[in-house]
Write a structure and sequence with these properties.
With 165 residues, the protein is mainly alpha-helical. 48% of the residues lie in helices and 11% in strands.
Amino acid sequence: MIVELSVNGLNDYYKRLKKASEMFKKMKPKFIKKSLSYIQDKANEHIQATTGNSSWYVLTHELENSWVINILEKSLINYCSHAAFVEYGTGSVGKGTHPDSGNYSYDVKGHGDEGWFFYDKEHNLHWTKGMEAHAFLFDAVNDYLYRGGFDTIINEVMNEVFGGL
């Protein structure tokens, strides 16, 4: 931005700065909404690419359809009851398979390599030692931060808001 060093030039510069400040306020909710939507879409892509690869697993799409975006709180939450199990994995098989499991607890009932039996929705009996992590949200955030998502969104929003400046 070129500024003319005169009273009129400085007044014009001040007006443009004031307008830019107002436009930045408009930019924030658009940026938040687009960012959270991007992460949700990427997480769903990762869910679809990595789940449902067993002979008895039935895709219900409950996991993909349980997202809630809250722009005011800047949050994206998945309310599916088994979302954490899919993200981090379960049992002795899942331990160590998530890139950043933090304080997540595996095999809390101490089944170990003996595993456990469970019934599916059709009441068929299955045995498992758990499942590996799918890290769908971790991968989606990495797509956003390190694989161009953030850059694309910030450029889109800046063009939308500042295009007429």
